[in-house]
Structure formats: structure tokens, C-alpha cells
Amino acid sequence: MASTTAKSYEQRIVTHPSPLAKRLLKTMAEKKTNLCVSLDVQTKEQLLGLAETLGPYVCCFKTHVDIYSDFTYESVVEPLVALSQKFNFLIFEDRKFADIGSTVKSQYTSGIYQIVKWAHITNAHALPGPGIIDGLYAGTKDIADERGLLLLAEMSSEGSLATGDYTVQTVELARRNKEFTFGFIAQNRLGNDDEDFIIMTPGVGLDDKGDGLGQQYRTVDDAVSGGSDIIIVGRGIFGKGRDPITEAKRYRDAGWNAYLSRVK
Questions:
Q1: What is the DSSP secondary structure assignment for residue 2, as one 8-state letter?
Q2: Residue positions annotated with a catalytic role
Q3: C-alpha distances in Å from residue 148, one per residue of 4, 47, 160, 246
Q4: Angstrom distance (rounded) from CA 11 to CA 222
Q5: Residue 117 and residue 86: Cα distance in Å, rounded?
């Protein structure tokens, strides 16, 4: 069977086993963007301002809900969900769960964040084994909307231990529940040619090579040609005095053109 790297997003919508992945691919195809912007900011004003400004250019936003200093559910989650509906983007809470099944289920569904209620996508480390997937999946049982999980198979930080056999075993875990575990945070295409895992890739930059704290950047063309479906960019769009709209358009166009080159 042909590799998913050569198939269009529209073709993959038809056959993908995950309802959430189908929705994500549909959003990407309709908006002609494979850009995910990482909203690593400090306040709800910054978060919602960027979501409003950049909503037209992204397929999803990545959040770190525990770093917003003035978080309340009503003032952060509710307006962010409204913006996701207005601009047709998905919300990816970069929670990186890493505990036993019963604990992650509670972290996912409870507390002040109640992540499962609003985040279409979340992610987890494979280290705890299959129980982490089972626990998170159990947390979606009362949610009517689509939900999906990414496993962290590879990371963009220097010296990452997520390599080799760890990555191989992470792929094996994902195969246990493809309707929920729809892909990976990774630097390269993973899985067999007849499997369709969505690959979301952080550490992508058009200008910078690193951040001095271990982050390493790859070019957009390198990431997408290597199998990435979605590029994740944060500071490259709104850091260092950059104009967010100008940079978002720049990354959107670079990502989309790289995708078109891959599937032509």
C-alpha cells in the first residue's frame, strides 16, 4: 500500500480510523494550513489576543494551560472555545501526561482545568505503559465531541532520551487503540506504510537554529519532507518583536507549499 506521506489530506480523511484525525485533516484541507501555533505566553490577555489574531491561519493552537498566571475556566477556556468555533481551529493542550491510568484520568477530567471538556487533543509520554492510554481514553466516555491522543515518540530537545527502542515501543502502544491514539509528537514519519499516524512536529523554524536551552530547530521543508503533517511554531511567530500576522502567514505558506511538494 502507498505510504501516507504521498496521500493528500482529503484522501486520508476517507480512510483514517480516528474521528478526531478526520476532523483535523478536514480543517487543514479547508483552511489550507498545516500550522499549529504554540501559545506559550503568560496571561489570558496574550493567549486570547493571539488566538483572535492568528485564528484564520492555523489548524490548531497548542496551549500550556498551567502557565497562564490569571487562569480561570470562565475567562480562559470559554472564550478560547468560542474562538475555536469562530475560526475553525482545534485546541491541543500540551499536558504531557506521564502517570498511571487512574491518576491521568483524574488529571484529564478533574481539577480546575477539566482538560477533556475543551481540548480536542492532548498528549502523553509512553513511559507508564498501556495504562496511560486506557486511563485517558476512559476519561472521554462522557464527552460527545471528538477527542484524540498523541504519544510523545520523539522530541526536539538536545539529548532527548525518546529515541531508538523507546520510540519503537511507543509506536506499538499507539496501535492498541488507533481510534483514540491517532498520532505522535515526532520528528519523522512513524509506523508502517499502510498505517496513517498524524505526525505533529515541534522545533520548526525558518530563522533560528536554537534557543540556548536545548531546543533545536529544523527547517519547514526538512520537517514536512521527513513526514511531518503539522508544524508547531511558537516564538518564531510572536517572539522577539516579530509581527504575528506576518510570521503566521509566512509559516502557513511555507508549510502548505512543503506539503504540496510532498503529495504532487
A1: -
A2: 96
A3: 19, 23, 24, 31
A4: 23
A5: 18
Length of the chain: 264
Question: What are residue 73's DSSP bridge partners?
Answer: none
Predicted pLDDT of residue 173: 97
Question: What angle (nearest 5°) sits at the alpha carbon of residue 65, between those of residues 38 and 226?
Answer: 30
Cell of 222: 526538512
Identify the DSSP state of 35. Answer: E
Poorest-pLDDT segment among 24-28, 133-137, 209-213, 260-264: 209-213
Q: Which three three-digit cell numbers place residue 169?
A: 515501543
- Taking the C-alpha atoms of residue 217 and residue 207, their distance in angstroms, rounded to an integer, is 9
Q: What is the distance, to the nearest Å, from the Cα of residue 254 to the centroid of all Cα atoms in its chain?
A: 18
94-113 burial string, b = 16+ CB within 10 Å, else e? bbebebebeebbebbbeeeb
What count of other Cβ atoms lies within 10 Å of the Cβ of residue 171? 18
Distance CA 174, CA 189 (A): 14
From the number of C-beta atoms within 10 Å of its C-beta (0-12, 13-18, 19+), residue 1 rates as: exposed
Question: The pTM is what?
Answer: 0.93
Q: pLDDT tens-digit profile of 101-137?
A: 999 999 999 999 999 999 999 999 999 999 999 999 9
Reference 230, options 207, 208, 252; nearest CA is 252
Cell readout for 50 is: 493571539
